[in-house]
Design brief:
Blueprint (H helix, E strand, L loop, with lengths): L4 E3 L4 E4 L5 E3 L9 H13 L13 H5 L22 E8 L3 E6 L4 E6 L10 E2 L1 E3 L2 E3 L5
Antiparallel strand pairs: 1-2, 2-3, 3-7, 4-5, 5-6, 8-9
């Protein structure tokens, strides 16, 4: 059986199941949702891993990382992604509420976007009609 997550050696991880490309490390610090948006903008300006189309993942994309069993750190995510528990999503709900995925409980939650700090992990690629296509930088 092939390994699902492949370290590309450039700070990114390829997901062999969804074909999405993830930032391997998170932002240096946990941040509010608006700060997460700024962090993604900075990655693109720096042309991280040679690409400028990084974005905050939506709920559907983050949920593809949840594994059916917890790892040795009691998180439902592959150890290649470290030990951060909660990640901001691009998905928003209601007025000034942003969603996040919690890899300890394995679910999606929402919270006021300026009230709490969570981790940020950028993604590239799009899910279209059940298939995922990685976009090349223009």
């Amino acid at each position: 059986m092939a390994t699902r997550f492949i370290d590309n050696g450039d700070g990114t991880v390829a997901d062999g199941e969804t074909l999405l490309v993830w930032q391997k490390e998170t932002a240096p610090e946990r941040v509010t949702w608006p700060e997460a948006q700024l962090y993604i903008q900075q990655l693109n300006e720096a042309n991280f891993a040679g690409q400028s189309d990084w974005r905050l993942p939506n709920n559907e994309e983050l949920l593809t990382l949840i594994l059916p069993v917890e790892n040795s750190r009691r998180l439902f995510v592959d150890p290649i992604f470290g030990n951060q528990r909660c990640y901001w999503s691009a998905t928003t709900r209601d007025h000034h509420e942003a969603c996040y995925v919690d890899f300890y409980y394995g679910g999606v939650y929402r919270f006021p976007e300026n009230y709490v700090n969570h981790s940020v992990r950028a993604v590239r690629g799009q899910i279209r009609g059940g298939a995922v296509e990685t976009q090349s930088a223009a």
